[in-house]
Amino acid sequence: MRKFPSASILFFMALVCVAGAAQTSLGIDSGICKSLVETQGYTCQEHQVTTEDGYILGLQRIPYGRYGNKSTKNTRPPVLLQHGLLTDAASWLLNSPNQALAFILADKGFDVWLANTRGTDSSRGHKSLSASDPAYWEWTWEQLATYDLPALFDYVNNHTGQQSHYVGHSLGTLTVLAALSQQKLRNSIRSAALLSPIAHLRHISTPFVRVSTQTYMAEQFYIYGLREFPPLGQLEQTLQTILCIHPGVECSNIMAAITGPNCCLNPSSLALYYRHTPQSTSTKNVVHLSQLIRSGTVRMLFDYTLPFTNMQHYGLFTPPVYNMTDIPKDIPLFLGFGGRDALSDVHDVKVLLRDLRNHDKDKLVVEYIQEYAHMDFILGWNANQKVYDPMLNFFGQH
After folding, report:
1. Model pTM greater than 0.70?
2. Is there a catalytic annotation at residue 341?
3. Catalytic choice (122, 170, 269, 290)
4. pLDDT tens profile 102-119
5. Hey, what's the torsion of the CAs at 137, 139, 140, 144, to 10 degrees?
6. Residue 79: strand pairing partners
């Protein structure tokens, strides 16, 4: 394996920069309900969900909006929101109430449930492991699709007595697509809205991600025993020096260099985003995502590289792949993607759409926004008009 440690460190630092002052997020201990929802005048409940493999996930509920009927009867359609990589449920709450999706849905009559991926601040519990145990971090997005999503849907559906709508951003789209392609969630999900969908990653254009995958950055962290990602520490202190001397790096807007040139972010919302990120994921998860980029396939299972080792784990020399054409054709899907997104590249989304070419025509809605990049879909000041209004119309039809 070829190693370029300086390039690997560069990418890691870039992620830290995008995520902001990471240590600050550790000081936000009042919980999402108290710090971000109740302060806006909404009722919020904290829930916990235990997965089949023992992880205890935090789940916030906004049962109704600020105005109108506040009955506790289960008459409002539930909607489950799932965030992307290195963030948590706070990402749906950072704009003003008339611009943030979670608040808009609550005010429009939905029962809103906010999921938090295992490893994030709200979801670091486990029945037998501590987050300081290396074994706690032995999972990838495949376990999120296999264990987390079914547990979340079961919990919400049992509490509301209804099937749930779903909104995923970035990694939150990959997990639901993978689950659906395995015929999971069919009886739990009412419809799915996929923002900046991630499935095929061959054409991902951000140079930082390309550097990281080509230099096996995450694999090096894993080999050195760093199981929680990002492994924060002294690397951040030399961030500016390393980034600014690297050719082609625009130090004034690192987020744009990684996610694409976002058109419509509020500076105040972006500052709040920096306070709440990065949220932790597992290094193994980042390795698995890197394997998807290098292979150009949606590999179902983590590739241990050595055929013999794969055979020991899976009974196969190479991991099987998810077949997106197996997604049930009658599941209502809404896809929103942007022309400037460096992570959910247009070419890759078109491959996904080809996979869905036989989907029931009245169950597939595609919303393309030329000027949007990756973060505009959750933080854009005009996303309420560009994305959420069409999404609400879609939910109303299903």
Report:
1. yes
2. yes
3. 170
4. 999 999 999 999 999 999
5. -110
6. 112, 165
